[in-house]
């Protein structure tokens, strides 16, 4: 078996070093030969952000900042990001993109908060529409400075009020009044200790009696509750009946207004109303004629003499009938009537 020459060993060592370097270059630095896709976002300020910064979703690096350009038309910075090809067509268009600081050194990274899964997915070279602008550190520091100044002024005024002679007297008076108040409250509690204890005992006894009374009358209470439930159900049925009656009345009212049925025609038919009105007027005229003795019926009712004559005529007819029945047998009368009729 032949041995490797020195040149071969050096060549193998060089290739191994080159392979390790390539691994570190492509894996550790997260570089790839696979072509990715571009997405863009516009920020008012990207202070601290540099090319090569990480782009993350849920803490996972999905791309890097490829370039940062200024757009004079919008006055904003356009961040051009290159994403791994594996994340193509999976980032929703309603995703929110934010510029944040990471670590103690304050390195800037871009964070993407994914939108709804069923939303349309961003295509290559499209822009994020929902952008959260980063907070300006100088404005935060200015606000904190104003708050610190206000706190300093408040502390100075409080110190002046306490150190001042009048302020010291007011504080001392406040403490004295509070001490007196607590002392009076303590005296009231000590004086009425027995009454308070008695009240608590009475409340305990009353609670115990109430519990015993409820236990003794448990059946009655349950019966009362059952009766109330039955009454409630009965009221529900009654309410349903009233509801049906109301519906029927509403139907009748609609029929009357629409001129349907006897009552509806009477109310809605103008001709029928006029006929009824004329009939009432004629009846009123007849009644008035009878009242004033006009016509046969009127004279019969109002003329006493005619009444007496009619009464005498009826009496004479009755007498004639009696005489005929006494003088002539019924068979003879029948024969006569038959001859007359022939």
Automatic annotation (TrEMBL):
Signal peptide stretch: none
Pfam families from the UniProt entry: MlaD
Residue intervals of the Mce/MlaD domain: 39-115
Source organism, top-level taxon: Bacteria
Protein name per UniProt: MCE family protein
């Amino acid at each position: 078996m032949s041995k490797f020459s020195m040149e071969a060993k050096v060549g193998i060592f060089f290739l191994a070093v080159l392979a390790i370097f390539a691994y570190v270059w492509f894996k550790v630095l997260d570089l790839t030969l696979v072509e990715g896709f571009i997405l863009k976002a516009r920020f008012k300020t990207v202070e601290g952000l540099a090319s090569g910064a990480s782009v993350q979703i849920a803490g996972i690096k999905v791309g890097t900042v490829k370039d940062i350009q200024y757009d004079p038309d919008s006055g904003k910075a356009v961040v051009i990001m290159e994403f791994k090809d594996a994340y193509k067509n999976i980032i929703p268009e309603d995703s929110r993109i934010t510029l944040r600081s990471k670590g103690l050194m304050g390195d800037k990274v871009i964070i993407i908060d994914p939108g709804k899964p069923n939303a349309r997915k961003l295509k290559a070279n499209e822009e994020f529409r929902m952008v959260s602008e980063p907070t300006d550190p100088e404005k935060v520091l200015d606000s904190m400075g104003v708050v610190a100044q206000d706190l300093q002024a408040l502390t100075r005024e409080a110190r002046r009020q306490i150190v001042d002679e009048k302020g010291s007297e007011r504080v001392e008076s406040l403490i004295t009044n509070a001490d007196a108040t607590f002392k009076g409250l303590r005296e009231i509690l000590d004086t009425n200790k027995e009454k308070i204890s008695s009240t608590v005992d009475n409340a305990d006894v009353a609670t115990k009696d109430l519990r015993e009374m409820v236990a003794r009358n448990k059946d009655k209470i349950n019966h009362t509750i059952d009766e109330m439930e039955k009454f409630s159900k009965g009221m529900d049925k009654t309410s349903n009946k009233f509801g049906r009656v109301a519906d029927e009345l509403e139907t009748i009212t609609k029929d009357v207004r629409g001129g349907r049925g006897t009552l509806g025609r009477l109310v809605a038919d103008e001709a029928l109303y006029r006929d009824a009105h004329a009939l009432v007027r004629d009846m009123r005229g007849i009644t008035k004629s009878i009242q004033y003795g006009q016509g046969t019926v009127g004279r019969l009712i109002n003329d006493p003499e005619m009444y007496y004559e009619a009464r005498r005529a009826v009496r004479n007819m009755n007498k004639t009938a009696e005489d005929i029945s006494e003088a002539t047998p019924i068979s003879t009368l029948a024969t006569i009537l038959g001859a007359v009729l022939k």
